[in-house]
Design goal:
about 230 residues; alpha/beta; five-stranded parallel sheet; three-stranded antiparallel sheet; 10 helices; EC 2.7.4.25; cytoplasm; ATP-binding; kinase activity
Length: about 230
Amino acid sequence: MTDPFIVAVDGPAGSGKSSVAKAVARRLGYGYLDTGAAYRALAWHVLDRGADTDDVSAVRAAAADFALGQGLDADDRRVFVGESDVTDAIREPRVSAAVSGVARVPEVRVQVNDLFRRIVADSSYPAVVVEGRDITTVVAPDAPVRILLTAAPDVRAARRAGELAGEDSAVVAEALHRRDASDSAVVDFLTAAPGVEVVDSSDLDLDQTIDAVLAVIERRTTPPQQGAENG
């Protein structure tokens, strides 16, 4: 995945990666791919078929006819499964609770990761910010810019509770902890692989985090200066 240019962003829930990745894409005129939305859409598809995402056979069967429609415009975040607009439905609690069930099936991850690569390869954008859980290590391990965006668990829980109006913060924190534990059994999204730059947003607000990520992109894409002896 070297054409177009890839900015790969990984991170746990509540780290701010979706908000930051979208803002960076807008600022730079890049495309934006939310890989988590695709897994949510697949979970919705399983549930829509009347199946359970804890049933691996049902997940495989749903993945076999999974027709995802997802663009790269940071300002058009509509998601389709076939003709169904599932943009709002994939954010419902029942889908959120089911996502880990589809993401833990290895062959499904291979299929969906291949789909991500095709979406990016077919892009008309000069560059795409791709964010998710194993983008820096599996989907685009050779990306010129690879970032792990993280934050302390209590900070992530507070952010997620703030996004979910009316939800009890302790319940949100426990749900986030369970998801971290479940998903980390499939992919390590809490530890930076070699060559991946860490941006810790625990003490940063959104604008500061965006600036920190933009600084990484600039560092990774600006040619090194000539040495003093050459100038």
